[in-house]
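ENCODED BACKBONE
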Amino acid sequence: DRFGRYVPHREVMVQDDLYIRDYDKCVLCFRCVGACGPDAQNTFAIDIAGRGLTATISTEFDITLPDSACVYCGNCIAVCPTGALMFRSEYEMRKEGTWDEDRQSITTTVCSFCGVGCNLELHVQDNRIVKVTSPMDHETASGHLCIKGRFGYSYLQSETE
């Protein structure tokens, strides 16, 4: 890296069906740590590991994400500026070369899972929801969602289509 230290390549971590972690893209902005911690979720599933120039983002005790305290809200994805954290659907489509934001439409709706009233932005490409976000300026959610709001859209579309 730019400080002359050896930084080993880290494989993309695909540990579940919801999102991936590609720490080679991480610039250590720590936004994900805040979203997982005091800024939003307060689960502290991801945090800073190491000190100084050896600091990295990791789960507690560097365990797999499904075994961690993660509740899969995806708020860390929402704040990641580099794509180090990404929807699994987006990652797979980018790998296949089919991800095309110019062909995507965004429809705003209200989450139907509870009565809080979070706004959802459904990103649709080829008549399929490819990811769900929430507007940062929405007074209820402020860009944050729960697992149901961010990833619970699969019931809207059949996998056999």
The chain has a mean pLDDT of 84.
